[in-house]
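Researcher: I'd like a candidate sequence for this fold, 153 residues long. If you have to choose between options at a position, lean toward the conservative one.
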């Protein structure tokens, strides 16, 4: 029966099944260019940030285990948003990543920002250097990062 389906139909079925489990959807997104509107990408990115920066409170001051694949999704989605002309939305999401990721790092024993977080942020900083907003907006962006504490912790 699968052999009779078109490629588009098969992809639709895979995406529908993948929505049941975020990890399956992440694996598909790595291999297949799944088109999504900016709002859907932002929602998926927020969820990936939450997954990537989540940790067990019992592991505070230890080497925290985190979701590497979720960081990969954050990086991909930030890049896709920038490609769609949504640099401001990518900046907003990267602020969320900085807040939650910084808290995660602060609670670990390493105290260093993992390379995964740096790679995600590099996508946005590279875009800012290439085609960013007015200089005043770029200056306000990192200032926001210092003023807010992570939410939900």
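Model: Candidate sequence:
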């Amino acid at each position: 029966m699968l052999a009779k389906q078109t490629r588009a139909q098969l992809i639709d079925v895979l995406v529908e099944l993948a929505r049941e489990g975020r990890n399956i959807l992440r694996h598909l997104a790595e291999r297949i260019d799944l088109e999504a509107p900016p709002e859907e990408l932002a929602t998926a990115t927020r969820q990936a940030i939450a997954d990537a920066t989540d940790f067990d409170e019992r592991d505070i001051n230890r080497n925290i285990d985190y979701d590497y694949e979720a960081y990969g999704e954050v990086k991909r989605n930030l890049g896709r948003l920038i490609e769609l002309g949504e640099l401001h939305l990518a900046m907003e999401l990267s602020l969320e990543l900085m807040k939650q990721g910084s808290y995660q790092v602060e609670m670990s024993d390493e105290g260093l920002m993992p390379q995964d977080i740096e790679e995600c942020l590099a996508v946005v900083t590279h875009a800012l250097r290439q085609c960013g907003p007015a200089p005043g907006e770029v200056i306000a962006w990192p200032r926001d990062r210092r003023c807010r504490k992570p939410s939900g912790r």
